[in-house]
Amino acid sequence: MGMANSLLHQTSGTLQLLSNLGIYCELRSNSGRVVPRGFKVQVACSKRGTYSPGGSNFSVIRALASQNSVVDPVLSPLNNSSHDSHNKSNEAALILIRHGESLWNEKNLFTGCVDVPLTKKGVEEAIEAGKRISNIPVDMIYASALIRAQMTAMLAMTQHRRKKVPIIMHNESEQARSWSQIYSEETLKRSIPVIAAWQLNERMYGELQGLNKQETADRFGREKVHEWRRSYDIPPPNGESLEMCAQRAVAYFKDNIEPQILSGKNVMIAAHGNSLRSIIMYLDKLTSQEVIRLELSPGIPMLYIFKEGKFIRRGSPVAPTEAGVYAYTKRLAQYRQKLDEMLH
């Protein structure tokens, strides 16, 4: 029981976070079994030693369809394969969105991990991103701990035709967990959990944060600043290299997000240029030289399909009516057809 109590303490933040969606938690040995009214979740503690600002050390939320659960009739065609979370016949969508323009982007300042909101243009980019993915299923949302990524995720979901409400899971204190609890089963069915993770934050630019990019180039030299920005393993003063950013972002993806996708959950990630490049490097098996040349446009969603045991990059939906995105898999087409039938 001592070990179980210790593990419960380590994962209590996320277990309480999940309980905000009406989830009941039961701990057994070194794993937690978490059973919500609407779906079934399993929690396991990470073997990887990672730092979390709140002291929580949570690794995996593995969502499994339950025979006794309340199933969303629109989503059911996507997840009608075996409930084995590692079954290669499972198919799921993964959407990556880089946040829209921030106030410091507009001012040409190094932002990094400074928490700066979107501009009006950034808000419009997030809304446009939402229109492009409005027919693609989303079961869970992961965002960085920074407001510009969270704003992008929330604004994008206002455009989704399913009209489910994204709800940020709060784990700041016992009071925050208690006060944000939801008691309506019907409301829970109409909600999407949003999990914020510092590991998905932008690369930390150290002593460059807050500096004007042009003035920094004039001060340190254009070549040195270019090396800091575009090399894979050379960090700016007291900051992170892309390699260091990739270590935390990819580890979090593998431990927390990938198991959800393997189980058939459709996931959206709203994050930043460097953390998303790191994840794409992992998904597409890019080299360090290939990833430094990869550019992601703000507010343009990138769609992957997990099918037959591998991730396949589909590209970016150009508009909600682009047939090619949905024709690529039968299940995406079925999802859109059910949306059309339900909403008309």
Overview of the molecule:
The protein is of the alpha/beta class. It contains 13 helices and eleven strands. The protein has a seven-stranded mixed sheet with strand order 7-8-6-9-5-10-11, sandwiched between helices. A four-stranded antiparallel sheet has the order 1-2-3-4. Strand 2 and strand 3 form a beta hairpin. Helix 3 crosses helix 4, helix 7 packs across helix 8 and helix 9 crosses helix 10. The chain is globular. The termini are far apart.
Question: Would you kindly provide a brief summary of this structure?
Answer:
By secondary structure, this protein is α/β, with parallel strands linked by helices.
Record the SSE blueprint.
Blueprint: H1 2-19, E1 23-28, E2 31-36, E3 40-45, E4 58-64, E5 92-98, H2 103-106, H3 120-132, E6 140-144, H4 147-157, E7 165-168, H5 174-179, H6 185-189, E8 191-197, H7 213-220, H8 222-230, H9 242-262, E9 267-271, H10 273-284, H11 288-291, E10 302-307, E11 310-315, H12 323-327, H13 330-343
Parallel strand pairs: 5-9, 6-8, 6-9, 7-8
Antiparallel strand pairs: 1-2, 2-3, 3-4, 5-10, 10-11
Helix pairs in contact: 3-4, 7-8, 9-10
- The average pLDDT is 78
What structural class do helix, strand and pairing data support? Answer: alpha/beta
Give me the strand/helix succession: HEEEEEHHEHEHHEHHHEHHEEHH
Gyration radius from CA atoms, angstroms = 20 Å
List the strand order in the largest sheet: 7-8-6-9-5-10-11
Distance between the termini: 54 Å
Strand count, sense and barrel status of the largest sheet are:
7 strands, mixed
Uncertain segments are 1-71, 76-86
Oligomer: single chain
Residue fraction in strands: 15-25%
Helix content: 25-40%
Tally of separate helices: 13
What is the 3D shape? Answer: globular
The overall strand count is 11
